[in-house]
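fwd from M.: "can u put these together and see what the complex looks like"

so here's what she sent:
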Amino acid sequence: MTGKILIADDEPHIRRLIEQSLDELEDEGVVIESAADGAAALEIVEREHPDVVILDVMMPEMSGFEVCERIRQFSGPGAPYVLLLTAKGQEYDRRRGESAGADRYMTKPFSPDALLAIVREALDHRRR
Amino acid sequence: MIANRSIRTAVFIAPAIIISLMLAVIVIFDHALRQQQSAFLEVVHGPLAQATTSTTRLLLQVSEVQAELLRYTQLRQRLSAEDPVLGDLRESILSKYEIISETFEALRSASPGPGEADVIANIEDFLTIHKAVSARLVSGAPIDTMSVSTVMAHYQQLQGYIAEFAERSLESAQTTTDRTEREVRSLAQWLVIGSVVVILVAILVTVYVGRAISKPIIGMIDILTAIAAGKAVPGVPGQQRRDEIGAMARAVAVFDTVTRELRENERSLEEARRHAESANAAKSAFLANVSHELRTPLTSILGFTSIIQRRLERSILPGVTSDDPKTAAAVVQVRENLDIILAEGERLTALINNVLDLEKIEAGEMTWNIEPLDVGDLITQSRSATASLHEARGLAFETAVPPSLPAVRADRDKIIQVLINLISNAAKFTAAGHIRCAAKLCDDGFVEISVSDTGSGIAREDQNAVFEKFRQVGDTLTGKPTGTGLGLAICREIIDHFGGTIRLESTPGLGSTFSFTIPCASGTPVAEAFSSEDCR
């Protein structure tokens, strides 16, 4: 399997956790990149055109909502699948995520298996 | 002056003063006019009339005497002194003098003033002379021309004096009339002046009394307006007065005090409310932050535990030889410990979610999507969401929903949350048997949904506590707390929000039934015979 995944989270432990959750995909040949803040994430999206972007909401420089909105603004048909992964589980935040154009909203703590399944499905979907 | 008299009295003072003054003026002028009138009438009817009558009579009588006297002198030249004609004439003349004397006395007594006194004296003198001369002429002596001419002269003189008297009487009457007229005119002036003074005094008294009454009332109105506007009032004046204004001022002072106290209370209440609100807002913000801060480490703990579990199962354990009983025991222990970490982590996550939910409902910040819902659907969804729990324990799941049950009005997610909570509890405390989920229509327009189990039941003394926060009951044998202690508290808050009630019936050892009511979608439905019954 090929593809590119971008993980953006300011917590190194969480980045490590997400990476390890997806290591099966890495073994299969998927490239995983990571960013520690919103601005860096946006830069990588513009440069690398990842297939799936996993965004934390509360990040320095630029929030996940904003990154998601920017991605939706400039990317056309090949737009990445955006998954917001956040500790903010309130209904308001969920709606905010939907209006920012996220494909999926997941709250922390999350199940690594569930995350793997979602990302795998997203990659499969894009390949079709 | 007015200050200590009651307003009821004061309002009568002004008109009373005015009426008295008017009456006084009227009485005075009436009296003066009557006086003038009587003086006038006295002159007109009294002296003037009398003078005029007497004068005329006197003149007439004098001229009659004179005429008879002349006739006597003429007859005497032809007749002797003893002739009876002359005798009769003489008697007539002398008797005429008696009448003249009476008339004169009347004239003198009627004489109005000293102005006529000299004329009266003159008339008297000439009357006396005339009478004396006449007496001599008619005495029988021969007539001498000298006496005749004297009597003629006296007669003329007398006539003149009588005429003068009449004239003077008229003049005097005229003077009296003129004076009366003048006095009446000046009285009229005084009447005008008096009326003006009375009117002015009346106006002044009215204004004074009016101000004396209205001024404190206007002051009181200003004070009341100030009190109503919440302005500080330095003090209510006039409280020491003994009239109605004083009573009013004291009442206003009480009103002021009460109002101030009320405002003070209101302010402190408002302040307390603000404090409570900001404390509540701070609590909400704090809880939101805490939950966020707790979620991040929980994510790592749960996530890495899962990954460890996965690595263990897929990469490590396959390489471990389980021949050694010690290693096998350790493997079992590690597996169990990892399960405990995951279960407790999930419980902690649920606790955070429940605390946030409860906090949101209590703060009135929960969003409710109220819509008509099918009870059968709700039960089916809740059943499948909890399938893993009751299936894992081998419990039968029964449902009893009448086909014609009306829809209910509630929030789908919230009712499912309640049902999942009740079913999970039932599954947790039921070792064997079944879970039964039933619904029925009540008389009062509500649908009752119940979740029964055949589990351990809840002791009577614990039954009231189950809906309280952090009051976990049951499982006391093992001493192992499961759940968050908030589930039923949230259920009660949710059901309360829809206007329903939640209650528990339980027999220890036989099982428990949790039932709650929610209103029907279409107002109060017609009670249907098939299942409608009293739910209480």
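replying to her w this: Chain A has six helices and five strands.
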